[in-house]
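Support reply, case 0932

Customer input (verbatim):
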Amino acid sequence: MNASVRFLVWGSMPLGSLLGGWLGHTTSVLTTLWVAAGIGLVATLPVVVSSLLRSRDLPPAPVHGTPPG
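Our regenerated output:
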């Protein structure tokens, strides 16, 4: 799993660098920074709208020998 996460994160960095460089060249650096801030804000929305922020306790651990469910 760690290799998959690293592949996704490190593999997208060159694409993001190229896109950011192209956007900064065609528009302006300030516009590129605002676009990056907007993308970062949108990336947090799944966590904010989920029930993850409201959960306070972990679910109970399963007891060995009992079927799941």
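We compared this against your earlier run and they match. Two observations from our side: Residues 35 and 41 are 10 Å apart (CA to CA). DSSP finds two helices and no strands in the chain. Please reopen the case if you see a mismatch on your end.
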